[in-house]
Amino acid sequence: MKNIIFFLSVTCILISAPAYAGSHVFFYKITPDQVWKANISSRNESNFMGQKNVTRTKNFIEYKVLKGPRPGWVTLSARIETPSQTAGGLMDPKQMRFQADMHKSGELRDIKASGADRKPDQLNEADLPPEMAAMYKQSFQIMADAWKASAFWFPEFPEEKLEPGDEFDITQKTGMSGAGMDMQTVSKQVFTLEDVNDGLAYFSVKERSLTKSSIPVSGKTDTKTAGKGEAIFDLRDGMWVEMTTKSRTKIKLGNIPGMGAYESEMLNIRKIVMEKK
Hints:
This protein is mainly β. The chain has one domain (about 20-275). The protein contains two helices and eleven strands; from the N terminus they run H-E-E-E-E-E-H-E-E-E-E-E-E. An eleven-stranded antiparallel sheet has the order 5-4-3-2-1-11-10-9-8-7-6, covered by helices on one side. The protein is globular and about 55 Å long.
């Protein structure tokens, strides 16, 4: 009798177990003609010279999925809409378009940004000294690279199967130099699979980054960021549902005219919500 009860108990557990339990190979399932929209909200708390400042931003990125260059690949065309203060200004991202080839693993190739060299109506380079005009042009390129990184934030999955407790990491190195400015960034994200339930995979996220920059006005600057968060991936749609991270940034400014060296801290809470249109 005890054996029968044990057999029935085990059977009930197996029947009631989630259909997506166990190990999985993660990959993106986006296909041509799909349109996805990312809602990216951010809250920043900064403290500079004893002044506390809180800013909130909300941006939208629309992705059109096009046929890729080869099987297993698609081409993503991204357009950014921002109601923030940058809209209509010198650094308005709406004048730019972004494109990248994306493998189902998340690997990105041939990332492009167009429109960064377009001169805004507010800027007349003829009225600026050559050095200042070069700095403006470099600033536009840096901003384009920053928006490009924001648009193509999708982490690349490993080829191996993952089960709860497994982790994978992503390390990125970016840099830019010219017109007297130099900026180099190394960032790392670690994703740990915590649970899989009802077709959804839950990850914890840890991230760290270091940026070293040199700007003629403020000298050398070191920026260190450390944070953690959580993310949800939909196994059926093959896309992230949302990702939230909370990070602290310490900025060490090298030489501000009239002030010398200075340190500042910033708290950032960032949330990305993906939706198929």
